[in-house]
């Protein structure tokens, strides 16, 4: 299978299957002399790790990362730093229970990838979804932890803003709350409601979808490569490549279609710091495919988990009609664990564009320009 790499100058290749020996990634193009230890990566992996609450799959994976190459001790500081060579990261699979899947090995779970893999490749690793499993997203999160270190003073954060039809109240948004509940939800009151709501969904053997918002603060202006490497286009592709994602918005997104020109265009004034000040951010920090220096805002919709206990109509590999229900361990709302994955994809795309911008343009433009006399 081809196309397991993404990015240009910060290039990530992931490998591994859900129930294989291990999964991981190779990050090529990371600049040298950036401080990096396994602990830096582990912090992010721990936020994605399964089995942390009753609302995520009970698969017990420590997701312990090992750095196999690409770092060395800097003699001057004594710290482990990147060397500029490929960084290989390995995460072993330790809690595979492949027999959970043996009963459904010839069947297609509706909404899952096995049918599509079969008609394309003629073979599919049915154990936990093989390569189509979201186990693969652990490698993305590991790569994202490195990417976060490349752009100075950038801060990327994500939150769950809707579960099923239930949206948060944005006036109650508090970033500190995201760490206080198992949903990465910034609205404490809605998080308490989600607990009860998702318990009901889980007990009934069903599942629900979610909407995740990811923001990047401190993104330098000028990142993005029109016209086929626009920052928003690359972000949309990166978010859409996450398992179960079915929609992506930048800034006001689909709501922009309902706005008037007056309301949608972000008006500008000069700030006291000599930089432009935007009076709103419907563009999500990107104009013409290039970052403006405003916060970059992306939102993505995650479909409900397709592995559910309720029997569903399907067919098997031999063209027979069957009913399928799944016994394995599954998240009732996969959108929850997609939050750190969305953050990682944002970090990888912006790091890649940061290096591409530096490669093509070099020194930043000094703005405002001097007026010709
Ligand atoms: C963090 C995360 C965990 C997931 N866990 C499951 C799961 O336990 N069961 C399942 O059926 N799908 C799960 N998925 C979704 C499937 O991987 C995905 O729906 C499937 O591969 C089909 O691909 P598509 O939905 O992108 O078309 C998960 C997705 C994410 C982002």
Produce the secondary structure layout.
Blueprint lengths: L4 E2 L4 E6 L5 E7 L9 H11 L16 E3 L3 E3 L6 E3 L4 E6 L21 H8 L15 H11 L7 E9 L2 E2 L20 H16 L6 E8 L13 H10 L4 E6 L10 H4 L3 E3 L5 E3 L7 E2 L2 E2 L4 E7 L9 E4 L5 E4 L13 H23 L13
Antiparallel strand pairs: 1-2, 2-3, 3-7, 4-7, 5-6, 8-9, 8-10, 10-16, 11-16, 12-13, 14-15, 17-18
The protein binds flavin mononucleotide.
Please, could you describe this protein's structure?
The chain has 373 residues and is of the alpha+beta class. The protein has 7 helices and 18 strands. The chain has a 5-stranded antiparallel beta sheet with strand order 1-2-3-7-4, with helices on one face. A 5-stranded antiparallel beta sheet has the order 9-8-10-16-11. The longest helix has 23 residues, at 338-360. The model has no long low-confidence stretch (mean pLDDT 94). The protein binds flavin mononucleotide (FMN). Flavin mononucleotide binds next to α7.
Output the number of helix runs.
7
- The count of β-strands is 18
Mean pLDDT: 94
Tell me the Rg in angstroms. 22 Å
Ligand roster: flavin mononucleotide
The level of helicity is 10-25%
Main sheet record = 5 strands, antiparallel
Shape: globular
The topology string of helices and strands comes to EEEHEEEEHHEEHEHEHEEEEEEEH
- Structural category: alpha+beta
Roughly how many Å apart are the termini? 60 Å
Spatial order of the strands forming the largest sheet:
1-2-3-7-4
Give the DSSP E fraction (strand runs of 2 or more residues).
Answer: 15-25%
Q: Give unreliable regions as ranges.
A: none
Short note summarizing the structure:
Helix content is 22%, strand content 21%. With 373 residues, it is of the alpha+beta class.
